[in-house]
Structures are given as C-alpha cells and as structure tokens.
C-alpha cells in the first residue's frame, strides 16, 4: 500500500515519520517504531474503556468501542480490509447469493 501511495504522490504515517526524522531510520525501523507507539496508545485506550470505578468514559462510548473493535478485527485480521478480495467476495455472497434452506 505504501508503494501505491508513493506513486500517487500521497504521504502516509511511515513516509512522514521518515521525512521528519531526518532520514536516519530505515522504512522497517520506522514501521516497527510506529507499531510500538500504536500498541502503547491502544493499551492506554483499553485501560480507559475497561476502568469501572471513576471512569471518565461514558457507558455508551464503551459499548461503541467494543462494537467497533469487532468490526475492525473482522476487516483487518488478515490484511487491508479495503483491498482484500476474500472480504469483498464474502460481502457479495451475503448480499447477492440466495439463502438455501434444507428441509429435514
């Protein structure tokens, strides 16, 4: 995906970090650093959502968070959910193929 964005003249988080880092890090090092940063922020957010007493996060937000986590996991568990042919085929099957009921 990064190559496609680069060919289209678009910047992403990796290219921006590499530019602002002075070009001292390789692409692989930058990706590793970003993944570590994201994991840390994800842990912080999860702590806020799981906190019961004295929580600043309203119940409705917590419920929305859990629903979004389920959806995002489905779309990104293997690869990029937007370009995945497997996911595209599954969605089309649900929307377009008839349901066959077997009589017992």
Automatic annotation (TrEMBL):
Asked if the record carries the keyword Hydrolase, the reply is no
Q: Spell out the InterPro entries in the cross-references.
A: Isoprenoid_synthase_dom_sf, Terpene_synthase-like
Keywords of the record, alphabetical order, are: Lyase, Magnesium
Mind telling me which Gene3D superfamilies this protein's record contains?
Farnesyl Diphosphate Synthase
Q: Name one GO biological process term.
A: gibberellin biosynthetic process
The UniProt entry, under PANTHER family, shows: ENT-COPALYL DIPHOSPHATE SYNTHASE, CHLOROPLASTIC, ENT-KAUR-16-ENE SYNTHASE, CHLOROPLASTIC
Superkingdom, natural source: Eukaryota
Give the required cofactors. Mg(2+)
Q: Which protein is depicted?
A: Uncharacterized protein
Q: Name one GO molecular function term.
A: magnesium ion binding
């Amino acid at each position: 995906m990064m190559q496609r964005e680069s060919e289209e003249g678009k910047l992403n988080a990796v290219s921006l970090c590499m530019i602002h880092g002075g070009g001292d890090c390789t692409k692989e090092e930058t990706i590793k650093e970003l993944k570590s940063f994201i994991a840390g922020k994800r842990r912080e957010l999860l702590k806020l959502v799981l906190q019961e007493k004295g929580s600043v996060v309203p119940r409705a937000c917590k419920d929305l968070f859990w629903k979004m986590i389920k959806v995002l996991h489905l779309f990104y568990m293997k690869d990029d959910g937007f370009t995945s042919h497997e996911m595209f085929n599954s969605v089309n099957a649900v929307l377009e193929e008839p349901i066959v009921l077997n009589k017992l």
